[in-house]
Amino acid sequence: MTILDEIVAKRQARLQDEKAVLPLAELQAQLADIADPVRNFRAALRGPFVRIIAEIKRASPSEGNIAELFDPRGLAQDYAGGGAAAISVLTEEDYFQGCLLYLRRARSYMALPVIRKDFLTDPYQIVQARVWRADAVLLIATILEVNQLQDLLDLTHELGMEALVETHDEDDMFKALSVGAPVIGVNNRNLKTMEIDLGQTERLAKLVPPETILVSESGIHGREDIERLAPMGVDAVLIGTVLMKSELPGALLRQWIDVPSQRGRRTR
After folding, report:
1. Which of the residues 88, 117, 175, 216 is marked catalytic?
2. How many domains does the chain have?
3. Does pTM top 0.85 for this prediction?
4. 158 noted as active-site residue
5. pLDDT for 129-144, tens place per residue?
6. Is residue 267 part of a domain?
7. Domain of 155, in residue numbers
8. Is 264 part of a structural domain of the chain?
9. For 211-245, how does the pLDDT look when each residue is reduced to its tens digit (9 = 90+)?
């Protein structure tokens, strides 16, 4: 098994426990208690500069434990103050040491849209994301069949949220385009080998129509990388590890938020 297979298998096992504790019907009933509206994740990712999705994560399979002292609320406030466009929160427990509570804590103290980043394969998890106040969810094309991806994307939109549909190769991109995903991400990390190559975005960006928002994920360490990705037509980048390791993540972000967007170069 690859590390991706392991993560997905573990995540699905946990999902069964979650359903046993709180059945879907009871979870859905909690949607009626949500008073605050969904924040517009899609709109946040497009503008005159390459937007930054700043990530909150405590650990990862490639880095191990990243942050001993961990305050999702404070990080979200720092990110917002530094000019991030949106916040990504890892909620997977076993490999990233995340939890759903981090999602709500991050969102409660600043005004940016928040995306739940996890290995989602079931409608239950989409409803769960909204109950815990997510404005968007990550859908990984590699672990979903086309019909699954379509169903989860449709449900996400029905609940007023947006989805970042993550791709890793041409097959994934075909899935994302075939379901009409408005926001498509390219993960520069090979989830089977953990190797990183920013050229992944360059290769797959050519397949993405200009009206679709394009996000480059993983392996982005600073302004130089953002400037390299901008001519590929990316609208936004997702940055996590380097921010989590910084003592002043907000100040670091402010050095990166004015790289001009060149999405006009992405034509079909």
Report:
1. 117
2. 1
3. yes
4. no
5. 999 999 999 999 999 9
6. no
7. 3-35+44-258
8. no
9. 999 999 999 999 999 999 999 999 999 999 999 99
